[in-house]
């Protein structure tokens, strides 16, 4: 199965700034996904990112706050914009291969 | 629409005793079901998956799960718990609508293993 390298693994950011998270997959995948895991909670899908098209956002998430890029079949980025303490979470990317899904190791974001 | 309910937020067992983590699902289509484990400060690891083949699915580290359509359940079991099994476990459903791309996660079950 695919292996995903996600970075940074953690960061502490000032409110009002932006952070871009990167995910690199070791093989070509059609679909990538971005999730948020708030403290003590489960994973919530932010958006689905297909190469060559706009990302599809879930209810409650908007492109201005979470812009996503998918320039090719092995790479994607998620930006958390104009951060506030409420954005403190773990952010994970995922890729689908066949019937399976692989996850990055996550980015633990703390906004102060 | 699809959803998954993990019936226990915390489960505590003694080392060497059986583990049962309960999961019920709801799906409008033929679902694919997964169990993932998340150790502290680690990424998600796939334990096992059901994709319409055998209803009893064997996974890694001695875990298995049985898909029961009549009960809409996909409970995770292990005959004998090990200290290293202590982690958060997520039951996940993906239905076949639109290619079955969207995963819906349960709220998680924290497994504690005591000596």
**Percent in strands of chain A:** over 45%
Largest interface: A-B, 20 and 18 residues
Give unreliable regions of chain A as ranges. Answer: none
Instruction: Count the DSSP helices of chain A.
Output: 0
| Beta-strand content estimate of chain B | over 45%
Termini separation of chain B comes to: 41 Å
Report the mean per-residue pLDDT of chain A as an integer: 93
Helices of chain B, by number, come to 0
Mean pLDDT of chain B: 90
General description of the model:
The complex is a heterodimer of chains A (112) and B (115). In chain A, the strands form two sheets. In chain A, strands 2, 4, 5, 6, 9, 10 and 11 form a seven-stranded mixed sheet that branches. Chain A has a four-stranded antiparallel sheet with strand order 1-3-8-7, with no helix packed on it. In chain A, a hairpin with a 5-residue loop joins strand 5 (43-50) and strand 6 (56-57). Chain A is globular, with a radius of gyration of 13 Å. Helix content of chain A is 0%, strand content 54%. Chain A contains no helices and eleven strands. Chain A starts with a strand and ends with a strand. By secondary structure, chain A is mostly beta strands. Chain B is mainly β and 115 residues long. In chain B, the strands form three sheets. In chain B, strands 2, 5, 6, 10, 11 and 12 form a six-stranded mixed sheet that branches. In chain B, strand 7 (56-58) and strand 8 (64-68) form a beta hairpin. At the A-B interface, strand 5, strand 9 and strand 10 of A face strand 5, strand 6 and strand 11 of B.
């Amino acid at each position: 199965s695919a292996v995903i390298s996600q970075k940074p693994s953690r960061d502490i950011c000032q409110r009002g700034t932006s952070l871009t998270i990167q995910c690199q997959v070791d093989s070509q995948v059609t679909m990538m996904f971005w999730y948020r895991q708030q403290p003590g909670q489960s994973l919530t899908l932010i958006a689905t990112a297909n190469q060559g098209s706009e990302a599809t956002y879930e209810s409650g998430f908007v492109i201005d706050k979470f812009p996503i890029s998918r320039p090719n079949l092995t790479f994607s980025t998620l930006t958390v914009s104009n951060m506030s303490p409420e954005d403190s979470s773990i952010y994970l990317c995922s890729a689908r291969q066949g019937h399976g899904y692989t996850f990055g190791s996550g980015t633990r974001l703390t906004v102060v | 629409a699809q959803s998954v309910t993990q019936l226990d937020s915390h489960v505590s067992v003694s080392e060497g005793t059986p583990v049962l983590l309960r999961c019920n699902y709801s799906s409008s289509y033929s679902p694919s079901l997964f169990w993932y484990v998340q150790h502290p400060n680690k990424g998600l690891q796939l334990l096992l998956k059901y994709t319409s083949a055998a209803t009893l699915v064997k996974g890694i580290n001695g875990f298995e799960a049985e898909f029961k359509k009549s009960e809409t359940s996909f409970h995770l079991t292990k005959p004998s718990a090990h200290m290293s099994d202590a982690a958060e476990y997520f039951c996940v459903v993906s239905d076949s609508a639109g290619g079955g791309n969207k995963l819906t996660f349960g709220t998680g079950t924290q497994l504690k293993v005591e000596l």
